[in-house]
Sequence to fold (136 residues):
Amino acid sequence: MVAALGSSGIILFSLTEAAEDSKGAHVVAYYFHGQMRCPTCHKLEQYSKEAIEANFKDAIASGRLEYKVVNVEAKGNEHYVKDYELYTKALVLSYIKNGKETRSKNLDKIWEYARDKKKFISYVAEGTRRFMEDSQ
Fold:
Protein backbone atom coordinates (compact mmCIF):
# COMPACT_ATOMS: atom_id res chain seq x y z
CA MET A 1 0.00 0.00 0.00
CA VAL A 2 1.02 3.56 -0.69
CA ALA A 3 -0.17 6.59 1.24
CA ALA A 4 -0.66 10.03 -0.25
CA LEU A 5 -1.81 13.22 1.37
CA GLY A 6 -4.88 14.62 -0.36
CA SER A 7 -7.14 17.57 0.44
CA SER A 8 -9.43 15.27 2.40
CA GLY A 9 -6.65 13.58 4.37
CA ILE A 10 -4.50 10.51 3.80
CA ILE A 11 -5.49 8.36 0.85
CA LEU A 12 -4.35 4.73 0.64
CA PHE A 13 -4.00 2.88 -2.64
CA SER A 14 -2.15 -0.17 -3.89
CA LEU A 15 1.17 -0.12 -5.74
CA THR A 16 -0.67 -1.44 -8.81
CA GLU A 17 -3.06 1.50 -8.72
CA ALA A 18 -0.12 3.88 -8.26
CA ALA A 19 1.64 2.38 -11.29
CA GLU A 20 -1.54 2.58 -13.40
CA ASP A 21 -2.09 6.22 -12.40
CA SER A 22 1.49 7.12 -13.31
CA LYS A 23 0.95 5.73 -16.84
CA GLY A 24 -2.02 7.98 -17.51
CA ALA A 25 -4.91 6.86 -19.67
CA HIS A 26 -3.96 3.85 -21.78
CA VAL A 27 -5.23 0.66 -23.39
CA VAL A 28 -4.19 -2.84 -22.39
CA ALA A 29 -4.59 -5.63 -24.95
CA TYR A 30 -4.90 -8.82 -22.89
CA TYR A 31 -4.49 -12.23 -24.47
CA PHE A 32 -6.11 -14.68 -22.04
CA HIS A 33 -5.34 -18.41 -21.99
CA GLY A 34 -5.47 -21.37 -19.61
CA GLN A 35 -3.02 -24.13 -18.66
CA MET A 36 -3.91 -26.44 -21.54
CA ARG A 37 -2.87 -24.91 -24.85
CA CYS A 38 -3.28 -26.43 -28.29
CA PRO A 39 -1.36 -25.32 -31.41
CA THR A 40 -4.25 -23.02 -32.40
CA CYS A 41 -4.18 -21.38 -28.97
CA HIS A 42 -0.48 -20.64 -29.39
CA LYS A 43 -1.19 -19.30 -32.88
CA LEU A 44 -3.88 -16.94 -31.49
CA GLU A 45 -1.36 -15.55 -29.01
CA GLN A 46 1.36 -15.19 -31.65
CA TYR A 47 -0.94 -13.47 -34.18
CA SER A 48 -2.39 -11.16 -31.50
CA LYS A 49 1.06 -10.06 -30.39
CA GLU A 50 2.20 -9.58 -33.97
CA ALA A 51 -0.90 -7.53 -34.88
CA ILE A 52 -0.47 -5.23 -31.88
CA GLU A 53 3.31 -4.81 -32.10
CA ALA A 54 3.45 -4.33 -35.87
CA ASN A 55 0.62 -1.82 -36.11
CA PHE A 56 0.99 0.24 -32.94
CA LYS A 57 4.72 0.80 -32.41
CA ASP A 58 4.27 4.48 -31.51
CA ALA A 59 1.40 3.80 -29.10
CA ILE A 60 3.43 1.07 -27.38
CA ALA A 61 6.53 3.26 -27.17
CA SER A 62 4.53 6.13 -25.66
CA GLY A 63 2.76 3.87 -23.13
CA ARG A 64 -0.70 4.46 -24.63
CA LEU A 65 -0.95 0.73 -25.45
CA GLU A 66 0.48 -2.39 -23.90
CA TYR A 67 0.14 -6.09 -24.66
CA LYS A 68 -0.13 -8.60 -21.82
CA VAL A 69 -0.46 -12.38 -21.85
CA VAL A 70 -2.42 -13.72 -18.88
CA ASN A 71 -2.97 -17.30 -17.77
CA VAL A 72 -6.43 -17.12 -16.17
CA GLU A 73 -5.77 -20.33 -14.25
CA ALA A 74 -2.71 -18.92 -12.47
CA LYS A 75 -3.21 -17.93 -8.84
CA GLY A 76 -4.68 -14.44 -8.60
CA ASN A 77 -5.85 -14.29 -12.22
CA GLU A 78 -9.08 -16.25 -11.84
CA HIS A 79 -11.14 -13.04 -11.58
CA TYR A 80 -10.57 -12.27 -15.27
CA VAL A 81 -12.91 -15.12 -16.26
CA LYS A 82 -15.77 -13.48 -14.38
CA ASP A 83 -14.72 -9.88 -15.16
CA TYR A 84 -14.81 -10.45 -18.92
CA GLU A 85 -17.20 -13.42 -19.07
CA LEU A 86 -14.50 -15.57 -20.68
CA TYR A 87 -15.33 -19.06 -21.86
CA THR A 88 -12.28 -19.70 -24.05
CA LYS A 89 -9.00 -18.08 -25.09
CA ALA A 90 -9.62 -14.40 -25.83
CA LEU A 91 -8.16 -11.05 -26.80
CA VAL A 92 -9.70 -8.26 -24.71
CA LEU A 93 -9.00 -4.55 -24.98
CA SER A 94 -9.27 -2.57 -21.75
CA TYR A 95 -9.22 1.22 -21.40
CA ILE A 96 -7.65 2.35 -18.12
CA LYS A 97 -8.16 5.92 -16.92
CA ASN A 98 -7.21 7.21 -13.48
CA GLY A 99 -6.21 3.67 -12.52
CA LYS A 100 -9.65 2.19 -13.30
CA GLU A 101 -11.02 0.35 -16.30
CA THR A 102 -13.74 2.47 -17.89
CA ARG A 103 -14.56 0.23 -20.84
CA SER A 104 -13.52 -2.99 -22.53
CA LYS A 105 -14.09 -4.95 -25.71
CA ASN A 106 -13.61 -8.62 -26.44
CA LEU A 107 -12.30 -9.10 -29.98
CA ASP A 108 -14.34 -12.29 -30.13
CA LYS A 109 -13.83 -13.12 -33.81
CA ILE A 110 -10.19 -14.14 -33.40
CA TRP A 111 -11.24 -17.81 -33.56
CA GLU A 112 -12.99 -17.21 -36.90
CA TYR A 113 -9.75 -15.89 -38.41
CA ALA A 114 -7.31 -18.33 -36.79
CA ARG A 115 -6.71 -20.04 -40.13
CA ASP A 116 -6.22 -16.82 -42.08
CA LYS A 117 -3.33 -14.81 -40.65
CA LYS A 118 -3.90 -11.81 -42.93
CA LYS A 119 -7.58 -11.48 -41.93
CA PHE A 120 -6.69 -12.08 -38.27
CA ILE A 121 -4.04 -9.32 -38.25
CA SER A 122 -6.38 -6.93 -40.07
CA TYR A 123 -9.28 -7.67 -37.69
CA VAL A 124 -7.16 -7.12 -34.56
CA ALA A 125 -5.46 -4.00 -35.95
CA GLU A 126 -8.74 -2.38 -37.01
CA GLY A 127 -10.54 -3.35 -33.79
CA THR A 128 -7.69 -1.98 -31.69
CA ARG A 129 -7.47 1.21 -33.75
CA ARG A 130 -11.22 1.87 -33.37
CA PHE A 131 -11.16 1.07 -29.65
CA MET A 132 -8.27 3.46 -29.07
CA GLU A 133 -9.93 6.23 -31.08
CA ASP A 134 -13.20 5.79 -29.15
CA SER A 135 -11.27 5.90 -25.87
CA GLN A 136 -9.81 9.38 -26.34
Remarks:
- The chain has one domain: 24-134.
- The domain at 24-134 is CATH 3.40.30.10 (Glutaredoxin).
